[in-house]
């Protein structure tokens, strides 16, 4: 069974990708900064039927040691990683009509 690791996956697009991979039979490792949100995402995706196919790891992707630990925990849990999706990031909402844009 293939394994996917998705950073920034406690919600939003990352959470949606985690559900899509899980629904297609993948092992899924979700990661984010907040364990409570990760636990909630697992319940939303798998409910009581996780069957060991979804796992969470707290990870701040700005810290290389935490990213390495995420990799190591995923491999330890599932034996291999087939897909790694870097989704973590912060969005800053802006009004396109009032924002200044410079073209380089």
From TrEMBL:
Q: Which GO terms describe its molecular function?
A: oxidoreductase activity
Keywords in UniProt for this one?
Answer: Oxidoreductase
Give TM segment ranges.
none
Q: Which domain of life is it from?
A: Bacteria
Kindly indicate whether the keyword Ribonucleoprotein belongs to this entry. no
Output a single Gene Ontology CC term carried by this record. Answer: membrane
What SUPFAM superfamilies does its record include? NAD(P)-binding Rossmann-fold domains
Family according to the record: Belongs to the short-chain dehydrogenases/reductases (SDR) family.
Q: What is this protein called?
A: Short-chain dehydrogenase
Say which species the protein is native to.
Answer: Oceanicoccus sagamiensis
